[in-house]
Amino acid sequence: MSAPGRQFGHHPIAMLRILQVARDRALELHPLALRALIRHERGAIQLRGTPAAAELFLDLLCGRDGEHSRAGGAKWLAVLNETGFLGRYIPDWARIVGQMQFDTYHVFTVDEHTIEAVRVLNALERGELADVAPIASGLVEDLQSRRALYVATLLHDIAKGRGGDHSELGAELAIQIGPAIGLSAEETETVSWLVLHHLMLSQTAFKRDIDDPKTILDLADTIQSPERLKLLLVLTVADMRAVSAKVWNGWKATLLRELYSRVADVLAGGLATTERDVRVARAKEAAGHYLTDWPEADRDFYYGVGYPGYWLSFDPETHARHARLIRDAERRGAPLTVDTEPLPSRAVTEVTIYTADHAGLFSRIAGALAVAGASIVDARIHTLTNGSALDTFWIQDTAGGAFDAPHRLARLHVLIDQALSGRLALAGEIRRASRALLGRRMRAIHVPPRVVVDNRASNTHTVLEVNGRDRPGLLHDVTAAISEQGLQIASAHVTTYGVRAVDVFYVKDVFGLKIENERKLAALRKALLAALQTPDDGTPEAVLPGRRKREAAA
After folding, report:
1. Under a CB-based contact definition with an 8 Å cutoff, are residues 374 and 340 in contact?
2. 58-67, 294-303, 350-359, 463-472: segment of lowest average pLDDT
3. What pLDDT sits at residue 538?
């Protein structure tokens, strides 16, 4: 028999075959075998573009139609990466090996993150994530393009660190790499499309109003295929869960699930998103099933109090809860009603506030929530036909769970009442809360403030994207600046990545129109950048669409 490892030098394809045998027979690799793989990793160069090597590589990555998925392709991918084989076999992979990601939420280098994403796919196929990602777990059982999904996961960050949009550059690389590792033309095209759009669902779910028909129709126009929507959702879940434990939570899972469901309905030829009147009528009818014991006059009042956007924003059970809250408040003549509903399955607490609408209402409520120690993860703002506001906030505690301790909820009620009545000095209280929650090290982390104004994302609203270092009261300061500019906030979408906050607002002017005057836009950007400033901030930047490509979050 030849000396250990010599066969790899003469027959480099044996480096893949030994891993296949180890997997199929549930054997561990001997340390000498690992040493031989490291010694002969350059032999992978000879295997590029060869059908036999491509077949073995894809089998190790994906398994034969799921036959070996339980063994876990990530395990063998890690071996190929650690021995240097993978960087030789796919030269573009070598450029991301050990590549650091300089932010506060990635905990892996690019190559490690990618392998972790494949490991998440393995876990989804084994059913291990059914509780935290039920939709994705169900979808992986019925995919027609399983190999394309695995290769897209392998290549989704392949172009990081090259400058420019890594999604666009990666899609171009996928066109070259796909055939070289044995994919068909159709599979290669699917991989390239997935790499190009791998951030689309997460960016839309966390930064856009998914109750806006244009948002859903724009997604449906881009995705077009129910199969591609399934692939994109599973890839999104794998990518997010592979970033770090803090990036994925129950609330983000809920947003992705709702977005997927709405786009799937459109792609399946169901109720057209543009048929707003029909959808509103159906929403009222569904809510009415919970109000059958009400007098007709009471039901008619409630049906008439909400604009179409309100009826399209909640499920029937929530509509019924709102109806009871509004009727009770009107009967009592209560100037303020605060209702809290912990939702442990979503890892949030829903806070509903019914009161007279006035300028700065959102900002004051956000300030009170900050003083209470709550983190706002999403919000819906609805002005009703009777001049009242019905605002809903979804909040978490500092650990990322539902804000549900009884004594804290009681204090939250009091703080909101004090903030709206002017009895709470919000600025000072927020500063004290900020000092208590942010240590010296966190305060020293620099996140350049940035404002993006987008008048194309919505047909009816100007969309503001505000980036800055997260801190208690940030949302209060930003929304106060928006209100001081005479603008009305229709909805807010709040996301954090480590210490970086990305808050998106749909706004109109006092006449209900978009803000398109350049002088007004300049004043708005200046005010928002001032609200984002902290003592250690550097020079801010304001960006308009088209002036610079938007930075992509991983």
Report:
1. no
2. 58-67
3. 43
| Residue bearing tokens 């109806």 | 323
501-504 LR contacts (CB < 8 Å, sep 24+): 501/466, 501/467, 501/468, 501/469, 501/470, 501/474, 502/206, 502/207, 502/465, 502/466, 502/467, 502/553, 503/465, 503/466, 503/474, 503/475, 503/478, 504/207, 504/208, 504/463, 504/464, 504/465, 504/466
Q: Tell me: the pLDDT tens digits for 281-300?
A: 989 999 999 999 999 999 99
Burial of 535 (0-12, 13-18, 19+ CB in 10 A): exposed
- Evaluate whether residue 54 is within a structural domain: yes
| pLDDT number for residue 174 | 96
- Other beta carbons less than 10 A from residue 233's beta carbon: 22
Q: Are 497 and 554 in contact (CB under 8 A)?
A: no
In a domain, 453, yes or no: yes
Tell me if residue 531 falls in helix, strand or coil.
helix
Phi, psi of 502 (to 5 degrees): -125, 100
395 with 411, same domain: the answer is yes
Q: Quick: pLDDT tens for 412-442.
A: 999 999 999 989 888 888 888 766 655 544 4
How confident is the model over 341-357, as a mean pLDDT? 92
List, in sequence order, the alpha helices (H) in 140-184: 146-155, 166-180
Q: What is the pLDDT of residues 54-91, one digit of tens each?
A: 999 999 999 854 444 455 899 999 999 999 999 999 99
Residue span of the structural domain in which 378 resides: 335-437
Residues 145 and 231 sit within 8 Å (Cβ to Cβ): yes
- Write down which residue in 396, 419, 437 finishes a domain: 437
Q: Is the torsion defined by CA of 348, 349, 354, 359 positive or negative?
A: negative
Burial 285-314 (b: 16+ CB within 10 A, else e): eebbeebeebeeebbebbbebbeebbbbbb
Q: How far apart are CA 195 and CA 92, in angstroms?
A: 15
- Domain shared by 393 and 425, yes or no: yes
Total domains in the chain come to: 3
pLDDT tens digits, 164-198: 899 999 999 999 999 999 999 889 999 999 999 99
Look up tokens 């809290």; give the residue. Answer: 340
pLDDT digits (tens, 9 = 90+) for 543-554: 444 333 333 333
The enclosing H or E element of 502 equals: strand 500-508
Residue pair 220/197 in contact (Cβ under 8 Å)? The answer is no
Rounded CA gap, 136 and 153, in Å? 14
The sheet carrying 348-356 orders its strands as 336-343, 348-356, 388-396, 375-383, 488-497, 500-508, 462-469, 450-454, 541-543
Helices (H), 422-517: 426-437, 440-444, 474-484
